[in-house]
Amino acid sequence: MRLTVPSGVPEGIALTVIPFREDAVIGTMSLATLVRLVPSPRQEEDPRVPRAASGHDRRRAELRANVQRTLKPQKGKNIPDYAEYIAAGILGKHGSAWSTPPITLWPAGETAAMSDELIPDSGLRRLTVAADAMVIAIDGETQTTAWHDIYQDPESFGLTYTELGRGVRIPFELYLGISPADARQIFYDP
User: Fold this and answer.
1) The pLDDT of residue 102
2) H-type helices in the chain, by residue range?
3) Contact between 26 and 171 (Cβ < 8 Å)
4) For residue 15, which of 113, 101, 102, 86 has the smallest C-alpha distance?
5) What CA–CA distance (Å, rounded) separates 5 from 56?
């Protein structure tokens, strides 16, 4: 007996999104999805990583460096405070008076698939990002790094993985099919 390999079924990370223009969508995702989809910018900048990383990870780090500035200046100094702010918000210490802006993402290359509307006339769609996609945070890297820090050690922020999994949704916008030059321009725009 010979088994056939399934084809045509997109594999990867599924996101529920709504297009807001023909090359961009918005949505929310869990923290676990964010840390799997977008590597920690701090790790990608670690000078030891390129030597030990796979070819895919090195290429993603190089591409990120092409469209994003490093964390080293003021941006990097803000990460611990931002992580504390986010954790305090999750813990209810700010009440409703806290916010994190959407993280702006760019998958370099093609995504795996985009569904038809899930509910007619709603705009809701299922976007599947390929498991090997190189997804770059072109805006919101300080926040992305802070989220990674929280996820790596929630207890140090007074949180648990249960709390992070239950009530945390992270807003994002994602630009599809744009060039590295366009991604860099979105980062530099006011």
Assistant:
1) 96
2) 31-37, 41-45, 49-52, 55-67, 74-77, 79-90, 141-152, 161-167, 180-188
3) yes
4) 113
5) 25
Summary mean pLDDT of the chain: 86
CA 119 vs. chain centroid, Å, equals 25
Q: Give the type of residue at 99.
A: S
Q: What's the pLDDT tens digit per position in 157-178?
A: 999 999 999 889 999 999 998 8
**Amino acid 27: pLDDT:** 97
- pTM value > 0.70: yes
SS3 content of the chain, % helix, strand, coil (to 5): 40, 20, 35
- Quote the pLDDT of residue 4: 72
Place of tokens 């993402």: 105
Place of tokens 């090195």: 58
